[in-house]
Amino acid sequence: xxxxxxxxxxxxxxxxxxxxxxxxxxxxxxxxxxxxxxxxxxxxxxxxxxxxxxxxxxxxxxxxxxxxxxxxxxxxxxxxxxxxxxxxxxxxxxxxxxxxxxxxxxxxxxxxxxxxxxxxxxxxxxxxxxxxxxxxxxxxxxxxxxxxxxxxxxxxxxxxxxxxxxxxxxxxxxxxxxxxxxxxxxxxxxxxxxxxxxxxxxxxxxxxxxxxxxxxxxxxxxxxxxxxxxxxxxxxxxxxxxxxxxxxxxxxxxxxxxxxxxxxxxxxxxxxxxxxxxxxxxxxxxxxxxxxxxxxxxxxxxxxxxxxxxxxxxxxxxxxxxxxxxxxxxxxxxxxxxxxxxxxxxxxxxxxxxxxxxxxxxxxxxxxxxxxxxxxxxxxxxxxxxxxxxxxxxxxxxxxxxxxxxxxxxxxxxxxxxxxxxxxxxxxxxxxxxxxxxxxxxxxxxxxxxxxxxxxxxxxx
Length: 461
Description:
Blueprint: H1 2-43, H2 56-59, H3 68-78, H4 83-105, H5 108-119, H6 122-125, H7 134-149, H8 155-169, H9 171-188, H10 192-215, H11 223-235, H12 250-268, H13 273-289, H14 295-300, H15 305-308, H16 311-336, H17 342-346, H18 357-362, H19 372-399, H20 407-429, H21 434-437, H22 441-460
Helix pairs in contact: 1-4, 4-5, 4-7, 4-22, 5-22, 7-8, 7-9, 8-9, 8-10, 9-20, 11-12, 11-13, 11-16, 13-16, 16-20, 19-20, 19-22, 20-22
């Protein structure tokens, strides 16, 4: 009996030792991968300068920006750490945790492939080198996805705090945190976890709101600029009838139609859909912020408050009168999110008569572009990503009901839902830019990797 007890105890001790050894090995490997990631990010040639055109709006409290990023900068300055170093550390950590999650769900080989596709995308990692909240947003979304699907000790509280912080960083973060909450609610139904989530989610938002309203009486948003941009860019189309709009707007629309009909004629002559989508977005940015600086508008002495004080009514007029044009514009924005470097590749010397060229240049921030070969490779890669994501999306829609009991299908469909709902909403409410796509870039990689793994496992069975 004593021998059996001794053998049983020694077996338990041996099992514990093996478990501790495996945990130590995993910890060492994780830390090594973290250091490797941080080193690659640190020494990669950045696409962007540290200060971007809208960086100053986050370095100081402003009425049209959420203030949590400013509070983070202030806190880090007090403890002697730069925001850039913090962003690089956080991004490295989030990538490592996401890769371990992918390895657990697929295989080591696919995990390595995912890691290389993420860490070697210098456009994605370069945001950690800029004073913009995007890098924090990138990292927090990676972490949120891991904590959403993995049961970890204290994971619920961490996940809720991450979602609350995402919502407090940028307006687009409110959309992302809402999507994450919907998935969390589907996964957990109505139980005590939902209430814990709501309480913890509120903490970062209460902090941001308390500080903001101690500085300002009310928030301003970019919604007015968005509506002006869509009204002005669409006014140049032949299908846009000025007579359908209110009389007080008509003098303004007569001028914008002349300016932007030339733009649409130019865009209609382009054969490359990616270039067209990219330029259409840039012209809408021109329409948002530079319309009232155009000579023809300034000479007319039109009062801009007529537009800015009636943006809600104008938006509904636009939807009612030109919904098809608005839909088509939004679909171009969806495609434009996947276009990287089309202007640099195709907008060359043969396009000498580019309308509103100076305004177009102003609409783009400074960027350190790679060589043409790298741009070609990047564009081909992102077109392939779009293709496989679309196929994966249709596959999920067709077969989800048949395999609803499969947990991996829920994870795959959730990732698709996050990516597609985010991209569709941003396409309909703003313009296209790879900057928006990069927010969900690792999830796009994860989706494609899951798709490959799903069919491989099916074939193996």
